[in-house]
From TrEMBL:
GO molecular function, one term: thiamine binding
SMART domains named among the record's database cross-references: TPK_B1_binding
SUPFAM superfamilies according to UniProt: Thiamin pyrophosphokinase, catalytic domain (SSF63999), Thiamin pyrophosphokinase, substrate-binding domain (SSF63862)
UniProt cross-references to CDD domains, sorted A to Z: TPK (cd07995)
Protein name per the record: Thiamin pyrophosphokinase thiamin-binding domain-containing protein
GO biological process: thiamine diphosphate biosynthetic process; thiamine metabolic process
Chain ranges of the Thiamin pyrophosphokinase thiamin-binding domain: 121-194
Organism name: Scylla olivacea (Orange mud crab)
């Protein structure tokens, strides 16, 4: 959630955030004061039982409800140069919690990957042609989170047909698309939460254009 005016105190032409939240254990106090002076709401969340990401989702969900704002998706750009696997697991854990915290989908961009949790029900994911044609981005997967789930899919090379996904049983990774050259729809019907993960093109211009096509599938 961002304000429209420039960040004059920080001499930055980019828009100011509406809210900054976290435990603030690594931010410079003077920088926090600058943002506060510009009208940015500062929300301390000192609870150490949850990550800053999880707490930020809670804050954002609360603001969406409080302001009765229409938000299609919460898009999170994570640090792709972070080689901490425990951080990756923490992000997935947050997505699983977010699915229970808010009905607004929370989508993570991590370098060349895009992933979010599909709740129980039917889903349609529009896959752009560029992703189908590019071998480095034409991969996808469905991973159970929190519990086993029974799923049926269309549009994949290795579709699921009322099969149960669970650790210790079947996990659908390293899959790809079986779609027309111009792209098309992948459908997923699931009895429980599944992490949908897919390759993505990291070029900013292409991301902005193609994300607008893909988002109908959330």
């Amino acid at each position: 959630m961002w304000q429209q005016q420039g960040a004059t105190a920080c001499h930055c032409p980019c828009p100011l955030p509406d809210v900054i939240s976290g435990d603030f254990d690594s931010i410079q106090p003077d920088l926090l004061k600058l943002y506060s002076a510009e009208g940015v709401t500062i929300v301390p969340t000192p609870d150490q039982d949850e990550t800053d990401f999880t707490k930020a989702v809670r804050v954002a969900a609360g603001l969406i409800r409080e302001r009765q704002t229409s938000v299609n998706h919460i898009l999170v750009v994570a640090g792709s140069n972070n080689n901490r696997f425990d951080h990756v697991l923490a992000i997935v854990a947050t997505l699983y919690k977010a699915y229970q915290i808010t009905s607004t989908p929370v989508v993570v961009v991590w370098g060349g990957s895009l992933f979010w949790v599909l709740g129980a029900g039917q889903h349609r994911i529009q896959v752009p042609a560029e992703l189908c044609r590019n071998p480095s981005s034409s991969w996808c997967g469905l991973v159970p989170v929190g519990q086993a789930a029974t799923a049926t899919t269309t549009g994949l090379k290795w579709n699921l047909d009322h099969q149960t996904l669970a650790f210790g049983q079947l996990v659908s990774t390293s899959n790809t698309y079986q779609l027309p050259p111009g792209g098309g729809d992948v459908t997923v019907t699931t009895s429980g939460p599944l992490l949908w993960t897919m390759g993505w093109m990291a070029e900013p211009g292409l991301f902005k254009r193609k994300y607008s096509e893909l988002q109908n599938g959330f």
